[in-house]
Design goal:
The chain is of the alpha/beta class. Helix content is 30%, strand content 16%. β7 and β8 form a beta hairpin. The longest helix has 20 residues, at 147-166.
Length: 357
């Protein structure tokens, strides 16, 4: 019987275990450079005993930023700063993927440089607010991407993926979940296009497929992962019948030979998770829906039952940097301090450790 503590091969490397650190927004890339700091290197190195670390969301272009103080991978300064992080993780025997996250309509002009405004598949504002240094602000109506801009955005993902490898990352995860740009193209309430990028399941999955193919062509499919969250309503996404869309998407992805598919499971979607697991022939990482509690030791049986090849843990990894050791020993566990999840850090800015990217 396979357990979470057995090794597994991924991206040409042997992972020590099947426990992944889920991506979580940290908002610690201060200043106009949007580059990670020494604290970022310490944070990830402390958690290098994970079989795989997936970083916080990293914007592939300036307009892809949706939260304050989040890092990028679109400048040489950012590449150099991330190299310090990956070196620190590798020095402790860890493996680390960069998550590329374009937030699309989730964001606000005050977070963007040079007069940029959020962009999206369609000019439809998301309901809700985003935190900024000026406080919470309503989401604005995004500018609809032209066909040429859609193609440029795909190219931006590929360039950022090359930058990730230059920075020493073992691979890249494309963020196609949680209501950000890739899922905005997938969701019928956010994508009202009638051109080749919308109008049907085949049209709405095209952006996700083309981004994934471009990244795989740039750095190798064996170093490319994709995260999805079928049916997740986060950031005003409405997918009333997600199964046909995601079944078509997985069919299109299957021939690419990706490193993995990562599912952030939405509540009530276990049946679809298991169907996609059966459909997809490659490695599957699962961040299981666990209700109000963090994903924890109760979920380890999902590896034993074959529902997933790796399990991704979020909040519990924040409170327990040596989480694999604690899971193997049956505890004890530090409880995540929920009071700090939306509190200020030493700069007086909100740090978002509870937002699973």
């Amino acid at each position: 019987m396979t357990t979470a503590f057995d090794p597994v091969h991924l991206a040409g490397a042997r992972l020590a275990n099947r426990i992944a650190m889920a991506p979580m927004t940290r908002s610690r890339a201060y200043g106009p450079t949007a580059a990670p700091t020494a604290a970022t290197a310490t944070y990830y190195a402390q958690r290098a005993s994970a079989g795989l670390i997936i970083t916080e969301g990293i914007q592939p272009s300036p307009v892809g930023q949706g939260y304050p103080d989040t890092p990028g991978l679109h400048s040489q300064e950012q590449v150099d700063a991330w190299r310090v992080v990956t070196d620190a993780v590798h020095a402790r025997g860890g493996r680390i993927f960069a998550q590329l996250m374009h937030t699309g309509r989730v964001g606000h002009p005050v977070l963007l440089p040079d007069g940029l405004v959020p962009v999206a598949p369609s000019a439809i504002a998301a309901a809700g607010q985003v935190y900024t240094h000026q406080g919470p602000l309503d989401f604005v109506t995004p500018r609809e991407l032209s066909d040429a801009e859609v193609r440029q955005t795909i190219a931006d993902f590929a360039t950022a993926a090359r930058n990730a490898i230059a920075a020493g990352f073992d691979g890249v995860e494309i963020h196609g979940a949680n209501g950000y740009l890739v899922q905005q193209f997938l969701a019928p309430n956010a994508n009202r296009r009638t051109d080749e990028w919308g109008g049907s399941d085949a049209g709405r999955i095209r952006f996700a497929v083309e981004v994934t193919r471009a990244v795989a062509d740039a750095i190798g499919a064996e170093r490319t992962g994709l995260k999805l969250s079928p049916g997740n309503p986060y950031n005003d996404i409405q997918e009333p019948d997600p199964a046909p869309t995601y079944t078509a998407l997985v069919d299109a992805l299957e021939p690419l030979g990706l490193a993995y598919l990562h599912i952030a499971e939405a509540p009530g979607q276990r049946e679809l998770t298991l169907a996609l697991r059966k459909q997809y022939g490659g490695t599957l990482i699962l961040n299981p829906a666990a209700g109000d509690r963090p994903a924890g030791p109760e979920d380890l049986t999902l590896i034993e039952d074959g529902a997933a090849d790796l399990l991704a843990f979020g909040r519990l990894f924040l409170a327990n940097p040596d989480l694999p050791r604690r899971l193997a020993a049956g505890g004890p566990y530090n409880a995540p301090d929920m009071s700090t999840f939306y509190g200020g850090d030493e700069r007086g800015y909100t740090d978002y450790p509870s937002l699973a990217d």
